[in-house]
Amino acid sequence: MATKVLVIGDLVVDIILGRVARLPAWGKETEVDSCESRLGGNAGNFALAARSIGLDVHCAGPIGDDVNGDRVERELRALGCNTQLVRRMPGSTCISVGLVRDDGERLFVTYPGVLNQLAEFIRQMEPPAIDVAFLSGWCQPPRIAGSALAEFCAGLSGRKIGVVMDLSWTAESWNHRPDLIGVLRQADFVLLNRDELGAIVGHRDLDKGIASLAAELGKRPAVIVKLGPDGAAGKHGGGAIVRARAPAVGSASSVGAGDSFNAAFVAASFHRQLGLARAIEHACEFASETMRKGRPPTNVGSRSAQ
Known about the structure:
Layout: E1 4-8, E2 12-20, E3 34-40, H1 41-52, E4 56-64, H2 67-79, E5 82-89, E6 95-101, E7 106-111, H3 118-124, E8 132-135, H4 146-158, E9 162-166, H5 171-174, H6 177-184, E10 189-193, H7 194-201, H8 206-217, E11 222-226, E12 232-236, E13 242-244, H9 257-271, H10 276-293
Parallel strand pairs: 1-4, 1-8, 2-6, 4-5, 8-9, 9-10, 10-11
Antiparallel strand pairs: 2-3, 6-7, 11-12, 12-13
Helix pairs in contact: 1-9, 4-6, 7-8, 9-10
């Protein structure tokens, strides 16, 4: 039976422009040779990747009562996702514009729209019978009050539901560090990148940063740091730091690669019941494969979770 995953957060329309050698100055213009509009955000990208490997995906989050909301809901259903907890609200669906650099790195400019109502949405939500909840990067303080989010996650754990949290870069979160740490302590797995780790621990030493964050979070959460082309590293409680290499992919766009890693890691940890080291290795392999082949179409269907 497929693992049931509830993905909560930013169901977005992404507009991806590339490739950009350098950003123009204010008042100037530059041209790109590609433009793609698609279902995106951390939650949307996760849902696409998770369905492609056979997970039973339930989506939850606010979208607008506009054409972009129609599109998000239609494409989630085409993937085979359960959309009963996707809520249409008066206003605009979140839109994120991504610029892809020549080497595959990217930046985003986002208009949140009704995504600003995510805190109230989560407060009112009653999660269904699931195996694991994946909280996307929008589910972090101060976008959602730390006490409310910690209580929500504790309720999931009380129902024996696994909790996986992915962070996203927001300087405001680092300014609310005690609230953020309090929320992360409620997770089974915490996923973040090198920059986010550095912002939380206050320095750039990878091994010391992983060790100090893992010690601060306690015995329950495992800390997994995504390192892009350098792979990933993780630590669980008092265990040793484990590492995995990422297969080379050249200058392929990294948009959505972290979300593919997340989906494969959840499948490996909860569906296949792999240990931390093997789960990280599998997630690196899957993310690299996705970058090489390009993301699957939204009518992809699914293959068995692997």
